[in-house]
Amino acid sequence: MARLVLKFGGTSVADVDRIRNVARHVKREVDAGHQVAVVLSAMAGKTNELVAWCKEAAPMHDAREYDVVVASGEQVTVGLLAIVLQSMGVDARSWCGWQVPIMTSGVHGSARIQNIDGAHLIERLEQGQVAVIAGFQGLGPDNRITTLGRGGSDTSAVAVAAAVKADRCDIYTDVDGVYTTDPRIVKEKARRLDRISYEEMLESASLGAKVLQTRSVELAMVHRVPVLVRSSFDDPDGPQPSLEGPFTGPGTLVCDEDEIVEQHIVSGIAYSKDEAKITLRRVADKPGIAAAVFGPLAEANINVDMIVQDVSEDGRTTDVTFTVPVADFERAKKVIEGAKETIEYEELSGSTDVVKVSVIGIGMRSHAGVAAKMFSALAERGINIQLISTSEIKVSVLIDAAYTELAVRTLHSVYGLDKQ
Ligand code: ADP
Ligand code: ASP
Ligand code: MG
């Protein structure tokens, strides 16, 4: 007998029929004698619709009211699943974030979970009741509803799993696991991984693989929660992973590095279109310039990612180029313009027609030449690299967005990731 948290994403709860299918997965685990907590997303497309309504009501709106509106999608699905489960004879009740309560920071729209007292939930689970918990939402220090940022139900699920000391957190989605790259881009050749380490999954998620929200992987890594990414479209009565002995599919297990027998140098390729590039030309080349540029951006809470500083054409000044999230592009330009007197640049330009493509793998720690291989493969295809950044287990390049697919496909085969 085990304690499981099952999370179902938007496409898995897209309508009442799909919710019935979710109930079959839940009932299977209950019938097997497991204690089950379920975390749900809103129906596919619902959150987008709610966000659009807020913008329509007023482009600049109160973030606390935005959270009240966008959190509502999850309230509908948890109620519906509880109804369906009850009609199948399964003892179940729904929980909104504030009822658990899932306590978060006060940053409305992108709050972080700070505490979940699992005692009450555990008591119900031990009584055999299924807890159906609304993902994405929580309760802030101001006693108001918060949301965790897009894709946040993954984080709710892992946080609940840690709070109730679950044996595993199963993330049910519309693909049957984590692939070597987004299967929507490299359709035939992407390969499902049996296992991926927390570190690699963390890099992949933060570099654009939206199959798991980055924060959920961080939490899983800190609390050592085994996470299984699997498909809700698989037959609910089909083969199931074993909890004892060596793990066997279906799905991809996100786990500790040393639990992975077969290590690859490169485990995946990720891409992110959520990038905007800003260039400052002919900046006075003197100490303190980087601080003058990046200080005000940090104060404005704008995350700068890739940075390059280069000698200008005139040989006397310097050019500074960096990237920020697309959503912060206009704000970042305004912040820089506001600091023009201290930065002393001549020209500011920017573009959102860029994409960041990354090669990820823990094997890079001990193998040289991964970056060089990437650069020459892109050069052979005539793809110009605008910016580069590296860490111990990844190499990222910024390129023209028009080459996204070509770059991802090329790198996927160059590193031997293509399905044979
Ligand atoms: P959900 O609504 O279930 O949370 P998401 O749309 O957030 O689902 O995440 C699943 C999607 O993530 C898949 O449909 C797939 O296109 C995309 N994805 C991106 N990169 C990967 C990857 N490396 N492996 C699997 N899926 C990926
Ligand atoms: N419904 C929310 C969203 O679409 C949270 C989630 O699905 O994870 O972002
Ligand atoms: Mg998601």
Q: What does this protein look like?
A:
The model has no long low-confidence stretch (mean pLDDT 95). An 8-stranded mixed sheet has the order 3-6-2-1-9-11-12-10, sandwiched between helices. The longest helix has 16 residues, at 16-31. Strand 1, helix 1 (16-31) and strand 2 form a beta-alpha-beta unit. It folds into 2 domains: 3-258, Carbamate kinase, CATH 3.40.1160; 276-351, VC0802-like, CATH 3.30.2130.10. The chain contains 13 helices and 20 strands. It is α/β, with parallel strands linked by helices and 420 residues long. The two termini are 39 Å apart. The structure holds adenosine-5'-diphosphate, aspartic acid and magnesium ion (MG).
Give the arrangement of secondary structure elements:
Blueprint: E1 3-8, H1 16-31, E2 35-40, H2 46-57, H3 63-70, H4 72-87, E3 92-95, E4 102-104, E5 113-116, H5 119-126, E6 130-134, E7 137-139, E8 145-147, H6 153-163, E9 168-173, E10 195-197, H7 198-206, H8 214-223, E11 227-231, E12 252-255, E13 268-272, E14 276-283, H9 289-299, E15 307-311, E16 318-324, H10 329-338, H11 340-343, E17 347-351, E18 354-360, H12 370-380, E19 387-391, E20 394-400, H13 404-414
Parallel strand pairs: 1-2, 1-9, 2-6, 3-6, 9-11, 10-12
Antiparallel strand pairs: 4-5, 7-8, 11-12, 13-18, 14-16, 14-17, 15-16, 18-20, 19-20
